[in-house]
Structure of ABC transporter ATP-binding protein:
Amino acid sequence: MSGDLLVLEGVHTHIGAYHILHGVDLRVPKGQLTMLLGRNGAGKTTTLRTIMGLWQASAGRVTFAGEDITRWPTPRIAQRGVAYVPENMGIFADLTVRENMLLAARGARHATQIDEARLQWIFTLFPAVEKFWNHPAGKLSGGQKQMLAVSRAIVEPRELLVIDEPSKGLAPAIINNMIEAFAQLKESGVTILLVEQNFNFAKRLGDTVAVMDNGTIVHAGSMQELADDEQLQHSLLGLAL
């Protein structure tokens, strides 16, 4: 697969009186996993929310599959094939795992109408979703909630997954499970844009990487190149590995 599925060109975003994004240029190649890295407060979450139309860009352009989606409302962006998993996961704690999944499967009115083959594939990625199918989502562990959040995002076919810090607060064993799941999703042809603070997580998964600082992209290239250059890591991210 070649070409860029998602492109941001000179994107500025204001939130109230605050100017958060200062001309963001970002390319997400089709069929690859792109990591968006940066220190806390660099503008990563604002970038994702701007892509999804949750916050409107005040200047610049966001293009998805060749279409200008800069002014599109969030539901239209989702219907076009973009799924978003926010940092807080956005699950409904009082509903069961099954009910959470059903809400995300817009073409189904009953759980039996969810695509069975796709559901079984999700169960292989995240066995906990099947194990706790009839349990309240609020009773799940942090890792299990994260698995449910990603499962909801992929219960219907998507072209692009936009995910904010999936490994935050998770145990190493759960992180390894998440890495394997994202690798399988990428192999299935899904394009992924992923914000991450865990650099070891990022370098194991990423094909390309963009690094943000003060509301702009300060570095873009291959993930392998950044993983191999400790001096560059330290200058961009303040890491000492």
